[in-house]
Structure formats: structure tokens, C-alpha cells
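Here we describe the complex-level prediction in full. Unlike the single-chain runs in Section 2.1, the two entities below were treated as one system.
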Amino acid sequence: MTEFIPPGTRYVDLPSPFPMKRGGQLLHARVAYETWGTLDAARGNAILIVTGLSPDAHAAANEADATPGWWEAMLGPGKPIDTRRWFVVCVNSLGSCKGSTGPASIDPATGTPYRLRFPDVSIEDVADGAAHVVRALGIERLACVIGNSMGGMTALALLARHPGIARSHINISGSARALPFSIAVRSLQREAIRLDPNWNGGEYDESTYPESGMRIARKLGVITYRSALEWDGRFGRVRLDSDRPDEEPFGLEFEVESYLEGHARRFVRRYDPNCYLYLSRSMDWFDLAEYGGGDVLAGLATIRVERALAVGARTDILFPVEQQEEVAEGLALGGAEVRFMGLESPQGHDAFLVDIARFGPAVQGFLDAL
Amino acid sequence: MTEFIPPGTRYVDLPSPFPMKRGGQLLHARVAYETWGTLDAARGNAILIVTGLSPDAHAAANEADATPGWWEAMLGPGKPIDTRRWFVVCVNSLGSCKGSTGPASIDPATGTPYRLRFPDVSIEDVADGAAHVVRALGIERLACVIGNSMGGMTALALLARHPGIARSHINISGSARALPFSIAVRSLQREAIRLDPNWNGGEYDESTYPESGMRIARKLGVITYRSALEWDGRFGRVRLDSDRPDEEPFGLEFEVESYLEGHARRFVRRYDPNCYLYLSRSMDWFDLAEYGGGDVLAGLATIRVERALAVGARTDILFPVEQQEEVAEGLALGGAEVRFMGLESPQGHDAFLVDIARFGPAVQGFLDAL
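The structure predicted for the assembly as a whole is:
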């Protein structure tokens, strides 16, 4: 595959074997990460960032890679996550194709890619992988763990399974369990990939990459990552330049269609379809109620942090803001001092990536008070 | 194809040639319809129903076909649209495959199905076809035209293009123009069909029906027709019976996935993919601003009806309730006595089909006062 792994990527080897929550184990697996800033002598200024499904560990430019990262406006000197004060670690999720071991990696037992022979990946496995990076860097207790989207799930799993690993937590557009609307969307994304004849039970190669399925999965993702409100203002009913008509039957005609097309083009062949399937399913399975005798608030209440912020966008249809409110409520039951913020960002689930004007001060205000 | 045309279907021949708004014309085309109740001597008690994308003309059981229809709870003796008082006509949209002439029909010029040789279908063509049915039945002035979803667009086009055709109007979960979120969803549904190798530029047959594309299109439709709120209560995180595991990799596991699967199974091979593409695109094109010098409210204000009701569900993400509010505002500018109702139905865009407890009284209250 042609997935691009950022040049500044570093790695932590996981214990071998590394047991997986739903069964099976990994041999000689590793987790990719990048860092920003300097760990202080007391090792007390470390922040961990765990990500959504697709990002790599390159959240922002750093000494190893000056290319802007996916959260460039949030992370750096003088930015909301100020790397003059904080030592920041971002990990790439176990199961991904952006450096960490996943279904696209070579199985040391066979010398060929795992593909569907990779064991089930759960959010808990992703969290355990991140915990190993934290320990390997000599950090006993994080000042804060920040999780966005799927990373919001990963952060909660990390806190529930590794008591004391962090003093505080910021949950951004995350949730403590998957609900049926998002399960339905992800199920359909996976089905689009599985129905692509090129997917072939996971046995594709560069020349038979399941491009159609990945295009549909990505476009459906983008539709659910943004909001109708944003698009009304941004695209309205504006048509594409009529000098360049799309001659395909039922081809592109409106700007919003071209926008989706651009997103699809920038995604296909840059992400491994099997990895996508594995991490997508891990979100459906996630339910912190497992840690609370079947009750999600009780599960959240098992988590011990001193302070927490749960924040999201009121226009988010994939991880609706009520889910961040639930996270706040449950963490408060566990004794944390918690703040919930439902922001008026029009950009939906993706707002934390683009509406830094709103999400930046929320994050910075929390960190400044630590 | 194996599309099922209800046995009680009747037909009105359109003038031949029948000119199409975006160019081209149809020869020997017809529009399918069904009726309920009795037209009174003054021909003043007629109601026309125009439908969403997929329904046929069989809205409810009648003398010709005792099978329950798609709006059975709304239409019949003693029901909200009371057929003891009203003579009701429901037309199948021109361009559909449920009796009216469409891309799956035989082109009299060649003796083979039109497929993509069918001219572009606009909402206005669907409306003009419905107008011919009204005239052919000897109705000069409808007591009311009721349009649901796409039918809400069709009804507005009918009123704008055929002044005086109706005294009143009920617009249910409809809109005066397509906005980018719904355009994006429909564009992706069409792309899923077009990317299915079996679609083959529209040249499929029974044995090569593009089932994968239609499955994805239908499931995406269902996801946008309902609401997260409804599904939280209805499905939660309930899993399928573990005695019958789906052995497919990434196969069905949650009840919500099985629900989508049922919808897909009941749709594929019962609707013609080319017809789906044509009618889907007709919605994207629709913009009543064309009748108001580029302003949608001005376009609505050209419509002359005495009374109107615009009603929808506050959980509708496909035709959000603000669009029904816009319809109400514009019709009021045209001089109508208008009521807008945003109902608290949890079922989203489909609420008018299933939440008769809320939509029934809204419709009945309006009709009773006529």
C-alpha cells in the first residue's frame, strides 16, 4: 500500500506477546508516536493526545518534521496546547496503518501482511498500546490525556484500565459508548468497502485497491462529520463552473459534490481498507458500561481524575453533544471537578479540527488552570 | 425488472408529445394513479396526493386493491383524510417505475427500455404529469393538494405552474429547494449505484441488477430518513441473537444493523436503479427561487392558495423543519392563510408515515376546517 507515514514518526515496541482484549495476541508489535516540547525534571508536564480513526501521530510541526500536522492550530509554542509549557505526546492508534502495527503490517509468523488474520482490535487495545508509550517515555502520571472523537473513547478506556495514569482529562467530541446512529453509519461505511469486489475478503493489493468502497466510506464520513447548517452557508446551491461540465451521467454539478469528491481523492489509497474496517468496528464495540456493571454512568464513575473537561459541538450528529454531557456527568460521579461545554460551532463533529476560535480557548482555559 | 405495480393501478395518457422542462419530450407517456371515495357533483371535494421518491400510487386499500397501502393509517373512511367526505387521487411520479412512464419503460421509438436515453426528469415534469391526471378526471379545482417529502416539492411546482389548480395545500416534510446536505446525501446514493459494476451505464438486466449499489443507497436513505433519538430508544446497543451469529467478517452484530438490512432487502430488485437516479437528481435541481427572480420566498409568494399548512418533524435531518417554516413564510407572503407546525416526532423525515398520532390530527384539523 501507499500509506504515507510521517518522516518524524518514532516507535515504542510493545511487550511480546501483547494480549488483545477480544482474544489473540500480537508478537513484536509497536506503536508510533511523535512528541513536542520538553519533559520537565519532575516528569509532571506531559500531555497525551489520542486521535480519531484516521489521523497519524503528526498532530503538528516539530523538530523532526516541519510539515503542518492535522491539529497545527491547536498545538505549538503559544498555541492553546502550549508546547513551551507542556511536553506533548501524540500516538497513532494500534490497528492503524500510519506507523503502529495493524492489519496492513507484516505478520512476523508468516512474513506476509496480517489482513483479516489480525486479531480483533478493541478501543481498549488502542488504549493499552498508548499506555505503553507513556510508560516507555518514563512518564508515571500524565498531567492530562486529551482524546478527540474515537480518541475520546480511547482516553476513557485508558483512564478506566490504567488508574492513576493521568491527573486530568479533556474529552473532545467523544463518547463513553457507541449509539445506534453512529453504529449504523459505520456499518454502512464498512459494507461499502466489503461490497467492493476489489476488497476480496481483505486480499487486495496496490493494483486492486478497493477504491469505490473507500470513496463511499469517506464521503459518508464527511457527510456525518460536518453539519447541514455549515453547508447551507458555505455551499448553498452554488453550481460548479459551467465551463468545465462533468460529462459523466449523473456526475458532479454542485459545489458540495465537488467538496466531497476532494475529500475522497485525498483519502483513498492513503488509508488501508482493512485497518479502516478494524478501527471502525472497534468504536461500535466500545461501551464503558462494561466497567460499571452494565451502567455507563457507573462505568465512568470508576474513573479517578482530579479535573475534566467534556466539550463538543452542538451541531455534531455523529457524537452528539449529549454524549459529552454524559461523560461529564459520569466523571463528576467519580469525584472529578468537571466542566461540560456545548459549543455553538456550525462545523459538526469536525469542529474541533477547524473551529479553533471556539475549541482553542476551551482547551487552553482548562490547561492554564492545571 | 421485477418491480411490482399494484393491481389496482389506473392510467392517464399524457399529451403526445409531452415536453420536458430540461429539454426533450416523451411520446405516448402515461401517469399511474389510484383513487378513493366519490367525486361529488360539483367536483369540489377532490384531494391530490403527490409522493416521495419511491412510493407507488397505492396509498391505501381501496375497491380495486384491498392490500394496505403506504399511508394506510392516514387515508380511508373515518381516517384523517376521510374518504367519506373527500375524493382522493394519488399519482405515481412521472419517471418512477411503479406504473408511470420512466427510464425503465419501453421507448416506443426503439421497442427497448429508455434507460439513460430517457430525457432529464425535473420536479416540474412530475408536477405537470400530475396536473394532467387532475384534468383527465374532470377536476377543475382541487380542494387540496397534499405533498410529502419529494411530493412537497412536486406540490409547490404544481401550484406555481398551474395557477388555480388547488384551493389549499398541505406541505408535509417538504421543501421549496434542495439544500447542500440533502444534495450531498443523494449524490452519494447515486454514486454508490453508479460505482456498482453491474450498473454498467444503466445497461443492466434482471441477472445483473446493481444490487450492491442499491443496497447502499437504500441504507443511506434509511439512516437519513429516521433520527438518532428514535434509534437510541428503539435499538440502543442491543445485539442480535447470539444463537445466529453472522459469520461474515464484519457482518451484522447489532439490532440497528439488522434493521437496515431488512430495509435494503425489501427495496432492492423492487425499484429500478435508473429511475432512482433520475428522480433523485430531480430533487437536487428543484429550486422555487426560479419562479421568484432568484429568491425562494418570492418564488413561493407567486403561489395563490387560500389556505396552507406546512408541517414537519423537528428531528428531520434531510428536509429540516426550517424548510417547512420557509414554505409557510413564502406562501403567507402570497396571501394565503398559513399555519406552520413543527412536530416533536422522534422519527425524523419518515415521521409522517409512522407517527400518525401527531401527523394525523395536523392533517385532519386542516381538512376539517376547509
